[in-house]
Design goal:
Layout lengths: L1 H24 L22 E5 L2 H4 L7 H6 L22 H15 L3 E5 L2 H4 L8 H16 L3 E7 L5 H5 L9 H15 L5 E6 L1 H9 L11 H24 L7 E13 L5 H24 L1 E6 L3 E6 L10 E13 L7 E4 L15 H11 L6 E5 L10 H17 L4 E7 L18 E4 L4 E4 L4 H12 L1
Parallel strand pairs: 1-2, 1-11, 2-3, 3-4, 4-5, 5-8, 8-10, 10-11
Antiparallel strand pairs: 6-7, 8-9, 12-13
Helix pairs in contact: 4-6, 8-10, 9-10, 12-13
The structure holds beta-D-fucopyranose (FCB).
Length: 467
Amino acid sequence: MTIVVLIGSLLLILYVTALMYWQRKFPELRWDWDGIDVNDIRFPSNFLWGVATAAHQVEGNCDNNNWSAWENAVDAAGQPRIKHGQKAGLACDHWNRYREDIKLMQALGVKAYRFSVEWSKIEPNEGELNAAAMRHYREVCEELQSAGIQPMITLHHFTQPLWFDRLGAFEQEKNIPLFARFCENVFQELHDLVPCWCTINEPEVYAAQGYFTGIFPPGKKDANAAGLVLKNLLEAHVQAYHALKRLPGGAQAQIGFAKNVFQFDPYRYWHPGDWILSRRLNLLFNDSIFDFFNAGHFKFHTPGLVKVEHHNSAAVRALDFIGLNYYSHFHVKLKWDRTTPFTFACPSNQIMTDMPFAVYPEGFYRAVKEISRLNVPIYVTENGIADAKDDRRELFIRRYLYALSQALKSGEDVRGYFYWSLLDNFEWAEGYDMKFGLYGVDFATQKRKLRDGARCFVEIVKRDAAS
Ligand code: FCB
């Protein structure tokens, strides 16, 4: 009996100590917003304020890529892949209306625009460049420059030409040079107008959604494939980075990629299963990538589920800056299922956005701290809220910018902030239901209108520029 009591007590002590350790080491930061003055923010005078979009989401007629194929496909049960069978179609017709949209940027007072070039328009068939498409992007950059807005180009934002998909896309290491060649072609044409380049948008999201959850193309559910694709995407960045650096203008260009950071916090702080899983997801989604660029080792490993390892010393410091895309965090809850051993649950005390993301500005502060492990300048390349009713946008903007200002105050090297997004647009698997735009778009008339909740962003940007 006494031995049972002794073992029980020891286990209890062990459990409580472990919980205290986890809590201290990985706290879920919370601020008391009632006691905070969100107007107490300060940004350096040369801070770069911008807005962001991506080609497939705004341009229109991107009909030769993996996403257009996905929009026309159905799942095993015959259901459309995109909510209510929506398709990107003409989107915001930004391809034709970019001049008008640049005027909208000027009205916001921003000095930078992050957008992506559509690979499937520039290289519709393997090795065949479309001069008119390239000219179009050159005109966009010229128009931006003459409006006093600095372009930041993303070379791959979730989409790729169908021919590249048919070759196996980023599942195949041998395809990486095809991507690097595309990057070189674009860079040679546009480097004189574009100081900042993102090679790839959110490699971890592309890999996780396309190969683990299966809600993005190609809709696979295979953790090992996700690990391999992530490894190949990171390699693709490294190869493209070095290829561009060797070109005329390469040394002067700022080249990085956009990393999405979602923290994974335990849903039940007392539950060891939730703790272990949340820690594991942080390791896979975030730390594995930081380690690759800090030390050249990529380790994507979870016993019984996935094991991908890779080394490339050329990855070390293959970054002039890092782009941070931040929206929120997830609460992880253990689920007794071998293939997907967790779900994301939402504690009821959180303010939710229209996406399954909570308003969590403290996480933005945490994310800046976490990504600063890479020791390169940081640009926030995306941050924004889906809010169709426009009743949380102002609170979101004020609190997130307060958190960012706090990160700067604590010494982090954040150079700029790009709001996602300039316009309402095609939100991938969610279609047009999500309203991320500072400007709402009426898709029947293509009319744009500044949302009331976005006015505080304009106020902050203009106040900052004047100070
Ligand atoms: C990011 C994507 C971007 C947009 C926002 C809401 O993950 O990079 O295209 O969809 O989410």
